[in-house]
Amino acid sequence: MLAGSTGLEPFDAHIEKLGAYLDSIGKTGQRRVIQCPAQVDQLLEGLPVRVGPEAGTSIILKDNTAVELGNPSVASCAFLLWTPNPPLVRDGRITLLGPDIPEAVGESLPFAQILLIGGAGLRDQHHLVLEQHYVISNQIEGYMIRTAPQQRRMWTRVSTEAVKKGFSFETLGRALMAIYRTQLPIAEAIEVFFVTSSPEDVKGLEAIAVEVQQIRSETLRSRFTQTEDGAYECTSEYVDCTECPDRPVCDDIRDLIRLRRKGKTSQAP
């Protein structure tokens, strides 16, 4: 929700809405809760696959795929919520609604992944920074992301070798927590939800995802400043636009700005 000229309000209302929805579907199906430690070394200890920069391969072919998650023909949803009120986030908790990866070898499951991040120092400007660390495909051995969550979708593959080693949603959740804690110390509390129960359960998250996407787009618009000649410049920290993960959305915003300016010009007397 937008807070006028002051920027974004925290996602506290969305966190409450998410919790109510997941509780409702959890009562009718399989629900598992895993509590993980807070320290990075403890999160990584005993994991069956390597986690860290360049730990993963760039491509997992279909023939080497044990489980596919979030194929567009099934259902997928992915988003991140943050709050400056860490007590709203149950730190270290992984909640899985539906079958786990070892139980679904050879299948294509519907898939939702939601991260909750809490940190007293988190502010509006951190939203995009948090989201940029959401795509960790090359940092987990045997795990590949085919579609990034900027479009509220996440289509992934888990390799046969990784599953044989013991890859599960606990593995993925602990890896995500470790990566965030390593790269973003401002994140004081991290909670992860995975939903694989049914396409209907995953699609039910779409309304929240749409609201999150709208806030994200508004945040991106705030990056643009108007120069004296009427042009718009991006204030992103990325010098090269080709390296910026938000380039597709920025391009859409630039096109929208051009269309609006063109419309105003054509309406001028």
Q: Can you describe what's shown?
A:
The protein has helices spanning 12-26, 40-44, 126-132, 160-165, 169-183, 199-203, 206-221, 247-267; strands at residues 31-35, 65-69, 76-83, 93-97, 108-109, 111-118, 143-147, 155-159, 189-195, 224-226, 232-234. It has 269 residues and is α/β, with parallel strands linked by helices. It has two domains: 4-213, Bifunctional carbon monoxide dehydrogenase/acetyl-coa synthase(codh/acs), Chain M, domain 3; 223-267, no CATH class. The strands form three sheets. Strands 1-4-9-6-3 form a five-stranded mixed beta sheet, sandwiched between helices. A four-stranded mixed beta sheet has the order 5-2-8-7. A hairpin with a 7-residue loop joins strand 7 (143-147) and strand 8 (155-159). The radius of gyration is 20 Å and the shape is globular. The two termini are 37 Å apart.
Can you count the beta strands?
11
Give the tally of structural domains: 2
CATH top level assignment of the largest domain = Alpha Beta
CATH architecture verdict of the largest domain: 2-Layer Sandwich
Task: Write the CATH fold name of the largest domain.
Answer: Bifunctional carbon monoxide dehydrogenase/acetyl-coa synthase(codh/acs), Chain M, domain 3
Can you count the helices?
A: 8
Classification by helices and strands: alpha/beta
Tell me the fraction of residues in β-strands, as a range.
15-25%
Please compute the radius of gyration using only Cα atoms.
Answer: 20 Å
State the share of residues found in helices, binned by percent.
25-40%
Average residue-wise pLDDT: 83
Distance between the termini: 37 Å
- Element order: H for helix, E for strand: HEHEEEEEHEEHHEHHEEH
Categorize the overall geometry: globular
